[in-house]
Amino acid sequence: MKYFIRSLKYYCYLMILLAIIVLALVLTGFVEADLSKMFVNGYDSLWQIALFMLAFALFYPRFGFSKRTIHIYGSQEELRPAVMRVMQGLGYGLENDAEGGFSFRRRSGFSRALKMWEDRITLSPSVNGWEAEGLTRDLGRIVSALEATREDA
What we know:
The chain has 153 residues and is an alpha+beta fold. It is built from six helices and five strands, in the order αααβαββαββα.
């Protein structure tokens, strides 16, 4: 269900972004306001664009969200100070500190809105250390920072 909701959010986001771009082009005079002249296929282009955006929105969550292993070892109590320091430095605030791990959200409302409120990063213990789950583009930075911090300790 989470996958479907993310896809729906991205579809709406893409369509709104496309509408803003087209509106800006019309207002600046780069294109005519008539849709039949604006696109090569006229009004048929609308459903083609919508279908293309739907395909992209259906595949994006598969690649945009992932899990990564963090090679740090220790109990939740031992790692808590280092994890809190790193995550706060990266702009995240603690959402939940349960027995199964940590959950963080972006502190900035603007940043959360840009990420369509899909900004949750969860850290949970695993056999190989810890596992981070969230936006793929943010995980690399988070995993690297946590592994570097743990090596310094």
